[in-house]
Amino acid sequence: MTEPESTAGRTDLVGMDRDDLGRALSDIGVPEKQIRMRVGQLWLWLYRRGVTDFTAMTNMDKGLRAALAERHRIGRPEVSRAQTSVDGTRKWLLRVGGGQEVESVYIPEDDRGSLCMSSQVGCTLTCRFCHTGTQRLVRNLEAGEILGQFLLARDALGEWPTPVDGGRLLSNIVMMGMGEPLYNFDNVAKALKIVMDGDGIALSKRRITLSTSGVVPLIERCGAELGVNLAVSLHAVRDDVRDELVPLNRKYPIAELLDACRAYPAGGNSRRITFEYVMLKGVNDAVEDARELVRLIADIPAKVNLIPFNPWPGAPYECASNNAIRRFAEVVNDAGYASPVRTPRGRDIMAACGQLKSASVKPAASARRRAEARS
């Protein structure tokens, strides 16, 4: 995608942390002794007030605003398509840099509003039950493109400036959209640290959940650096079954993954790890599977989200029956673990868990070379 003339060549401030903003201000000639103050002003305008126009930054002089506007922009992803489900779920197909697209979903509930955010265009992994897994990885999203999903949702909900007294429409983030967040950890972490900063959006780490398919080496780092809630896409209790459903299991098998969960720095009785378990007919829905699940997680403070399989075109699986899901849940509940059955949201607009996908594809190497030669 070619940038419009008004923004071409200008660097986006969205996604910049305080150090980045300081360098940007220094580059346009702001005196060193003013940098900290100006960074604080910019931070509030970008991440507490949500402005997209430099002229709105009324506590900064016109010369500085003009210099910023000459070099920079305050961007948002472009909405290619917006859909609203009969249950109130909202899905945006968003165009990011390079003309590629990702999906982001807002799920309103009685006590919260959660935004399901993507971390990659396509996905590194090929989980067989997941629609996103049928789309090969195109690229990692930059920090600003991840954060931009949140800012755009705030725009759409009319929730600027940042509410400071509770009652937020957008109160939670779940990194459960397209992609494996831990395979894009640096950009995901940078975006989430901006979201959690108390002088801006100020969303508590307790209201952020990162879901992983089991990238074991980065689980500890996630807990140590971010301290957010951890959700693990388990989906099977035997390695042979999980090897098929989540091929990453061949690299990091169940025992190794559960050891990482036991050691998760942000875990504990007050911060239980969530194990996500998609219910597949005749694959992983037997009472014996439920009993083995209880045995596997016996020493981990946890809850189990049972997810009825959400169908998509060409899916190789069917959803387990209501009776099978009920029996499975009873076993887990009787063992003392909460095991809510997730109510599918947004199925009619393909916005439910495991249904996200875009049409973006990775360009061939020859096409990339031609594009680079033209630029």
- The helix-strand sequence is EHHHEEEEEEEHEHEHEHHEHEHH
Number of separate domains:
2
Integer-rounded radius of gyration: 22 Å
- Average pLDDT reading: 91
Structural shape: elongated
**Ranges with pLDDT <50 over ≥5 residues?**
1-6, 364-369
CATH superfamily of the largest domain: Aldolase class I
Give the strand tally.
13
Reported for the largest beta sheet, the result is: 9 strands, mixed
CATH topology of the largest domain: TIM Barrel
Query: CA-to-CA gap between the ends?
Result: 13 Å
Provide the CATH architecture of the largest domain.
Alpha-Beta Barrel
The helix-and-strand class reads alpha/beta
Proportion of helical residues: 25-40%
Number of distinct helices: 11
Widest sheet: strand ordering:
3-4-5-6-9-10-11-12-13
Name of the top-level CATH class of the largest domain: Alpha Beta
Please state roughly what percent of the residues sit in beta strands, choosing from under 5%, 5-15%, 15-25%, 25-35%, 35-45% or over 45%.
15-25%
Would you give an account of this structure?
With 375 residues, this protein is α/β, with parallel strands linked by helices. It has 2 domains: 11-73, Orthogonal Bundle (DNA polymerase, domain 1), CATH 1.10.150.530; 78-349, TIM Barrel (Alpha-Beta Barrel), CATH 3.20.20. Helices cover 33% and strands 16% of the residues. It is built from 11 helices and 13 strands. The chain has helices at residues 18-27, 32-47, 62-71, 143-157, 185-196, 216-225, 239-245, 254-262, 287-296, 322-334, 365-374, and strands at residues 11-12, 72-73, 78-84, 90-95, 101-108, 113-116, 120-121, 139-140, 172-175, 208-212, 229-233, 273-279, 302-308. The strands form 3 sheets. Strands 3-4-5-6-9-10-11-12-13 form a 9-stranded mixed sheet, covered by helices on one side. The longest helix is centred in the N-terminal third of the chain and has 16 residues, at 32-47. The radius of gyration is 22 Å and the shape is elongated.
